[in-house]
Structure formats: C-alpha cells, structure tokens
Write a structure and sequence with these properties.
Elements lengths: L1 H19 L20 E7 L2 E4 L7 E9 L5 E5 L4 E6 L4 E8 L2 E6 L11 E6 L1
Parallel strand pairs: 1-3
Antiparallel strand pairs: 1-2, 3-6, 4-5, 4-7, 7-8
Length: 127
C-alpha cells in the first residue's frame, strides 16, 4: 500500500513540475522595465498650435504612434530626419503609423503653411 501511495506522489510531483514549466505569460527575458519599450504605443496630440507626446522617454526601435488631431483645422505629421510623413489628419480624426527610430534627436512638425511657425514644431530625443 505504501508503495502504491509513493508512486502516486511521484506522478503528482512530476505533473506539478511539468505544469510550472509550461509556456505561460510573462515578459521575455530581454525586456527592460520602465519607460516605453521598443514597440510601445505613443500618443501624439496635435492642435492649434502645439504637438505633444504622451511620454518624453522614447526608446530606439519600432514605435507605434497614434496621431490625434484635437484641433479645429486640418494638420499633418512629419518626422523630418526619418522621412516620415502622414498627410491630412482632419479635426477629431486619429491615424496610426509605425516607425523605427535610431537613437538621436528628431524634428517633428506639421508642415501645413504657417503651422510650424505658429508653434507646431518640436524636437524629440530617442535613446
């Protein structure tokens, strides 16, 4: 009887170990805590006469930008040094673009006539 119980305990322990080694969630070991990681979603809000990012800490690599026009007139979105251009974002409209940025400083603007000069131009630093 004790032998049968011992075999049952061993089988139960093996099953528990196998279940705990299964591929659950969790982060891949390469991810770093804190700040948006590569592939993060960053919201960019445009309105008369400003461009604001949801975070100032941008990491190099792929970024998904959600562009929101909260103004009352049409805007566009340019990242000058990365050759990124999103045309015609109408009032109340959102658009998404995925960009891959290297470390450095980039000029971001709306280049509709007069908009950058009125304040819709800023710099972002990517680390």
């Amino acid at each position: 009887m004790y032998r049968r119980m011992g075999v049952g305990v061993v089988v139960l322990l093996v099953a528990l170990v196998a279940a705990s080694c299964g591929g659950g969630g969790g982060k891949p070991s390469g991810e770093q805590p804190g700040g948006p990681s590569a592939g993060a979603v960053v919201t960019v809000t445009e309105k008369e006469w400003s461009i604001t990012f949801s975070t100032a800490a941008l990491k190099a690599g792929p970024l998904k930008l959600t562009l929101k026009n909260e103004g009352s007139i049409e805007h566009n979105f340019i990242i000058k040094e990365a050759n990124v251009e999103v045309d015609s974002i109408q009032p109340g409209q959102s658009k998404e673009v995925t960009v891959t940025l290297k470390p450095g400083t980039y000029t971001v603007m709306c280049n509709i006539a007069g908009h950058a000069e009125a304040g819709m131009q800023t710099s972002i630093k990517v680390q």
